[in-house]
C-alpha cells in the first residue's frame, strides 16, 4: 500500500497563527471568488469565521493581506493585496519544501511498512 | 516578535495514520517508562486510547512496534522492538528535515511579519 505524507505547517507569532493550511486555503478561495463570503461558502465555513481568520492575518503582517474592494460592504467584494499574494506564495513554497524534505526520507520507511 | 514554526507530519497508509506526532510521543513515553499504562498517564491519555494507537502501529509495520515485556499483563511492562525504535528514530529525523526545510524559507517572512 503506498505511503502518503500529510503535513500541516503553521507560522506562529506569539499566541496567534499568522499563517496555516486553513488560512492559505481561504486566501486562495478569496483570490478565486473575489469575495470573502463566497470564499467562506466554498469552504463550508461561516462568514464570521472567515472574517476572524482574515483579521488575524491582517494584524500579523506589516500590511493588510485582504482588503475589501472599492464599494464592497458586508458580503461584498474583497481581494488579496500584493503582500497577501506574496505571503500566500511564500507559504506554499515553504510547505512544498517541508514536504519534499520529508519525502526524501521516505525511503527509510519503504521497507518497514506493510 | 519571533516567528515560530509548528509542523505536524503524518505517515498515512490507506485510511490509517501509521505514524504521527502523537504516536511518536507515545513511543518515546513507552521507551522511557517501560509501560503502556505509565506512558498513557504521562500524556494524560487513557490506557484504551494508548492501546488503540499501539495496535494501529503494530499492524501498519512489517513487525510489531511495541510488545509486552515477558510476564506483563494489563498495565504491565512493554517495550519498543528494534523495528519500533528504528521507526521512531526515522520519523524524528523526517520531522526535523521537514522543519529545517521550512525554516530555511523563513527569511522570506522575516520582513513581512510585524
Describe this structure in words.
- The structure is a homodimer of 114-residue chains.
- With 114 residues, chain A is α+β, with helices and mostly antiparallel strands.
- Chain A has a single domain (11-105), classed as Winged helix-like DNA-binding domain superfamily/Winged helix DNA-binding domain (Arc Repressor Mutant, subunit A, Orthogonal Bundle).
- Helix content of chain A is 54%, strand content 18%.
- The first copy, chain A, has helices spanning 21-33, 36-42, 47-60, 82-104, 107-110; strands spanning 3-13, 16-19, 66-68, 78-80.
- In chain A, strands 1-2 form a two-stranded antiparallel ribbon. A two-stranded antiparallel sheet of chain A has the order 3-4.
- In chain A, helix 2 crosses helix 3.
- The radius of gyration of chain A is 17 Å and the shape is elongated.
- At the A-B interface, strand 1 and helix 4 of A face strand 1 and helix 4 of B.
Main attributes?
114 residues, alpha+beta, two-stranded antiparallel ribbon, Arc Repressor Mutant, subunit A, homodimer, 4 strands, two-stranded antiparallel sheet
Can you lay out the helices and strands and say which pair or pack?
2 copies of one chain form a homodimer.
Chain A: E1 3-13, E2 16-19, H1 21-33, H2 36-42, H3 47-60, E3 66-68, E4 78-80, H4 82-104, H5 107-110
Antiparallel strand pairs in A: 1-2, 3-4
Helix pairs in contact in A: 1-2, 2-3
